[in-house]
Design goal:
alpha+beta; eight-stranded mixed β-sheet; 5 helices; 8 strands; about 25% helix
């Protein structure tokens, strides 16, 4: 997707636009500009001049800027914007299950990865995602199929939504604590709160939610 407006692009011929698109795609993939030879080979022409006239027209119309590097064309503004946005993305694992002892970021438990903007995470280190099943948290705006992002290093406080392991099962619930008494609260009147009969371990505090439409 180009950042150029349709009216701006109307100033280009079909060939000039094709050359610009190729330069943009090449820069996104390799982080540098294509050489004249690479452009010739891509467009199936034998003369540098046939490429140079399009490059010169793109420069005159303000779509590209030349520089003194061997490849001769500065990174396009559209490419700079995309690369900058990509550099702000953080890759976090999606865990299928979380065993006792907390999130284990190993191939055995990771089913996928999410790339999210760094502004979505209070604490990137230790963050993971888990797919929500069931309807026990719908009154908190968490639906079946949503992915919650949680962090294992945040300490759970009364009222936090957490990922927890209860008697061998992972669940997403609201953490409740009254002195030594700890339980997990459902956010759906049709579901009961959970009190562990044997084991309860908070494995992460939920910090964000991802929903696909």
């Amino acid at each position: 997707v180009s950042t150029y407006s349709p009216t701006h692009m109307e100033t280009l011929t079909e060939k000039q636009e094709a050359v610009l698109r190729f330069i943009e795609k090449y820069q996104m993939e390799y982080g540098s500009s294509p050489t004249l030879r690479e452009m010739r080979e891509h467009f199936g022409v034998t003369s540098d001049n046939s490429i140079l006239k399009h490059v010169k027209a793109l420069e005159e119309k303000g779509f590209i800027q030349k520089d003194d590097t061997p490849r001769g064309i500065k990174l396009l503004n559209s490419v700079k914007a995309k690369l900058e946005a990509a550099s702000n993305m953080i890759r976090i694992p999606v865990l299928g299950t979380i065993p006792a002892g907390g999130p284990v970021f190993s191939e055995e438990h990771i089913i996928d990865y999410f790339e999210v903007g760094s502004d979505m995470l209070k604490k990137p280190d230790g963050s993971f995602a888990l797919r929500v099943t069931g309807l026990s948290m719908i009154d908190a705006g968490i639906l079946e199929g949503d992915f919650v992002i949680a962090n294992r290093y945040l300490k759970a406080r009364d009222g936090d939504i957490v990922v927890a392991l209860v008697d061998g099962q992972n669940t997403v619930k609201r953490f409740r604590q009254d002195g030594p008494h700890v339980w997990l609260q459902a956010e759906n009147k049709d579901y009961n709160d959970i009190e562990a009969s044997e084991y309860l371990e908070v494995q992460g505090v939920v910090i964000n939610l991802i929903r696909s439409y």
